[in-house]
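Possible regression after last week's pipeline update?

I re-ran a chain I had predicted before the update to compare outputs. Posting the input and the new output here so someone can diff against the archived version. Not blocking, just want to make sure nothing changed silently.
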Amino acid sequence: MGQPANEPVSVLGPEASVLRLLGLWRPQEGAGQLAPLLLAAVSLASVAFIPVGVVLRLCGDFPQQTEETAHCSYICIVCFGCIVKAVLFIVEGGTVRELVHLLHAMRSEYGTDEGSERIRSSYQSTVDRIYRYFQVMALVPTLFWICSPLVFAALANTPQDPQTNHHQLPLPFWLPGGVSSTPTYQLLYAIQALSLTVTVVSAVCLDVFFIRLMMMVAAELQVLNEKISAIESFQASGSMYGREAQEYALVTSGDRARDSTKKSAENFSDDEIFSQLLNNILHHQVILRCIWLLQTAMNVSIFILLFVNMANLCFNIFVTAGLLQDGRNVTKAVKAFSTVPGLILQTAMYCLFGQITTDQSEKLLYSAFSCGWDDCNTRFKRNLLIFMLMVGRPVEITVGKTYKLSKEMLLQVLNGTYVLLNMLFHVHSDD
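New output (post-update):
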């Protein structure tokens, strides 16, 4: 599926094409959107099929072991987070589209020089590598979850294990007696494999989509820092121009021509420096608008994601520890633990890239103070002071209206995981 001609492809990455294929991302709003809506409905139904099967399992054959119950709870929580994130992404589609087009327009209007484009390309390359890493990290556990029933069946058919006719599915699902010997089992197996694949692919692409937008905002902040710092060198070149003009006037026309040329050169330099400052202030205003749109799109979904990841890390480690302690099933233990690195990486990426945006914002004050303002006129100093007051409070990406994406937030999620895990172990030991 190709990109439309008027879509700002310079801001988007390959994950946007996958989301369009799933019906979750629509570059334009208008007529002729029936096909994306149908694709979105199929994708959401595929994700919802997994927790429905888990609920049937809990209602039809409630597991006797605590680890199995925790495993079912983990799957329900994961799918709940994926569904909420996908639905809110569709609901906030207008906000996301406005953000993408605003970023594209900002890149075309501010900082069009080679150095600025190099900064943006560096950030784009970083997100492209992250997308590939996410794909690999998601592919391995997904394949293991899909193939683990086949591995378990192969081990169960050995002479040492009498369970020769026990069929399992990749995910919990209630199978009445006799179903395992009919094509229904193969059909359910295929549907679960497809649903699991759609769930993982949509989750990875949505994460990378948001991370790319965060990094594009951070890139614009770094471009702005470079432009503000360049005012000093621009001022120095303007002063050099004034000295050269003064010497030229002294040789050709005497003192009167020298004073007139010096005055016009200084006025030209002051106007150009002030124009550059004004352009940077306008650039900063557009960046603030982008950050507000980004927070609006991420506010609820990413807050739920961080909370869900905290609970999922707790459940997964608890299930893995319980299975390994009893020695009942190493395959299930590996299956449960295989998703832990992905959950930690997903949480870390949001928090650390949010921290990068804040760090770039904090540098604006120092860049403004170091721009050589002491040799500028009063008009420049007055407007620079206003700009410094504006950037004195660093920009922070906030989700849930109170939680800031930062290194401290990552530590809070890990600490909350430890607290929940400790509570689960105490409850399990009391039973």
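Follow-up from reviewer: compared with the archived run. The chain has ten helices and two strands. Marking as no regression found.
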